[in-house]
Records
---
Amino acid sequence: MLASEIIRKKRDGQILTAQNIKEFVKGVTDKSIGDAQIAAMTMAVFLNGMTKDETTALTLAMRDSGDVMEWNDIDGAVVDKHSSGGVGDKVSLMLAPMVAACGAYVPMISGRGLGHTGGTLDKFDSISGYQTSPSNELFRKTVKEVGCAIIGQTGNLAPADKRIYAVRDVCATVESIDLITASILSKKLAAGLDCLVMDLKCGNGAFMSSLDRAEALAKSIVRVADAAGTKTKAVITDMNQVLGYSVGNALEVAEAVDYLKGKRINPRLHKVNMELCAELLVSAKVVQSIDDAKTKLQKVLDNGEALEKFAKMVACLGGPADFCDDVWKYLPKSKIIRPVYGENSGYVVGMDTRGVGLSVIELHGGRTLPEEKIDYANGYSEFCQVGDWVDNQHPLAIVHAQNEDEFNVARNNLLKLIKIGDKKVVSDNCIIEKIGQ
């Protein structure tokens, strides 16, 4: 069937057959289908949705559009984690080495920034020399020797998703549950996983702002992944404020390394990270209970084994061997690093987290076009948390910008995006719900 007829069929609300979907994905892969047709199809899906069978067929077709990895030569569980996207979410950077230090293997295939959310891959691109697109041979070598590797999609790993993902980012179809499910799982299933944990963000900084939508995505992902033979657990976590103390690529890398060193650990970030790590270790049967997992995880943090795994991963994938000794020797720095103070003293009672993510894009720390180059240095550090007291000595955040114009835009944004009140607000539990066995 012609691509235009497949698009027409979905546009008119009809159900696509598995063969229809295979034909379309094949055209995406061999580039006989252009970006305009991909945009039209994703909008048709966004508006009309997909059935469970359609979503499963799309996921598997995208998975099979390239290589599907096998890990028969690894003696241990192969696991991974994925986040639906947040602001300041650098969990993957700590989770992979921590889980690896506990005995599982983590071949993590990540994406770049999507919409207002930051991308794990962009964070690693800020590390001098680090190869985010290595050969499959180097990827496998790193996973086997180190225990973890965080990379982007290689040229022949779910290549159909790579094209569709880039188009979705700029044509307002990011929030589709069916497309998110297929995009996430096509990459994860292509990595040959035994177990997967999904961190589904919910709140004003998430694609799923309502709990109902977050639950719907969680159930969709668990259902499709389980049908494909990958045991999956979904954890719904709060994204009504920045996760951690930094937002921006290089700044988040630095915070992650400090975390692994035990320096100034953000409580909410720690709670989310430990919960996701623990769920993976239990699913993989490395330990028997969540409590046992958390004890083991804390041990590899305290004894430096998790930090050592991170350092070895960076070196194995082309980064500096001594990166963790002095991260700012290799990470890019902004020309202007300056605090922004609130116009009034008081407690932080809330923030427009999505707006914070968009403001990083205004600082050129994110993209508005797929091919756009970004500034890895820019963003925010020491970002205030809900419940913090702010005044002329305690800033809303420290802005990292390249010039005065960028700084002034960021300052004005922060003053609008962060709400200050007289009464201290206690932040809600950041672990909202768990879905799956």
Note: The mean pLDDT is 93.
---
Amino acid sequence: MEQKYEPVIGLEVHAQLKTKTKIFCGCSTVFGQEQNTSVCPVCLGLPGTLPVLNEKVVELGVKTGLAFNCHIAGQFKFDRKNYFYPDLPKAYQISQFDKPLCYEGSIEIHVNGEDRKIEIVRAHLEEDAGKLLHDEQNRMSDSCVDYNRTGTPLLEIVSGPDLRSAEEAHAYLSCVKSILKYLEVSDCNMQEGSLRCDANISVRLVGQDKLGVKTEIKNMNSFKAVEKAINYEIKRQIELIENGEKVVQETRLWNADEGKTRSMRSKEEAHDYRYFPEPDLPYMRLDGAFIERLKATLPELPHARFQRFVRDFKLSEYDASVLTAEKDIAEYFETCVSIFSDAKTVSNWVMGDLMKALNEGNKSLSDNLVTPGRLAELLGLVKDQTISLRSAKVVFGEIFLTGKSAKSIVDEKGLVQISDTSALEKIVDDVIKKNPKSVADFKGGQTKAISFLMGQAMKMSQGKANPKLVNEMIKNKLS
């Protein structure tokens, strides 16, 4: 069915920067402290206090801008964005308006087998607000405010209206998150609020250049929520237009329990915020040497690594995308391949057994006892047929729990694979003798019967028999 409407989507990503102290004061940014204990007169906006810019914030912002192929402003400034909200103690937010730190960049995303370039309009610095606490469990009418988050440094990354589906939005967010984590500028923990996203969505007739009326969706705390909210909003706007109604420019909230958006407030234009230059912070200048020094520290970024994994290791695009999404996983994989050169086999074990064990054990890769060297040793034992694949799974589990070498576990458990044909012949003869029906089925043309006989042979050998030799011997004896 031909599509009548085209969605137009732009995303605003707010990433808390990974600094020890806040953007304009010396208060700690550590998450989870007792409420209202990491505050001071500066971040509470008390009269007579002056902000002092944290240099580390600028450094992390510039690194991110360079990774997003942005122009870095030689001169930038901060502005006051005036609005009242209970978790904003000053009744204004120190942000950047007309002279952001980074502007006019782009990143490439890979979706549906194609590379798409997405514009980065700007990436600017600002301070975070506090957090409202609602006692919903006890149904109390009052809300409280925790100001610990107030003043935490944020980098707001604004995309162009270049995304055309919820799937593309998900791919873009995944790419942004990967870049931020590769750079180590943010921990990107959405559960703790250090990565948040607002979506601007409109629809228009296919082929039309003029943009439709947009709505902004807030209160999304996962990539899945972003996808669902975007799809819901696209459908809602199309239904309004088809029914002859108008789409109203407004801010809406995503209700995950109901699976729908609801109106929060009419959307204010930029001038309604009464931006004006922050009088307590001077214009800032960056020299070229500072920018070049930071550029030299940039790692290989996810998309470039993805392309290299596909090209050099001959991996599928799916495998390469999974392995390069997290920097530490990509580095683990490459270290393992440098020892055991079969990249596809390493990929299968990393994406399968290793990731499954980490998830089930609720462990990070840094806590993992299966080092690249130990995994490479294990795969070598399988390759030279010292142990079977089934035994290798057992050994992997032991390495994960104990950190012992594969060789020592194989010796302890007596898992060396039986490849001696005389020993295997006794097992095969016994299996054929005890399973006349399966033998008759095989000779009658039911080739699947060989699988049952193989299983019986492996069971009889306690998983130690060389499966390739057993398979050949059974077929030879029954032919």
Note: The chain has a mean pLDDT of 91.
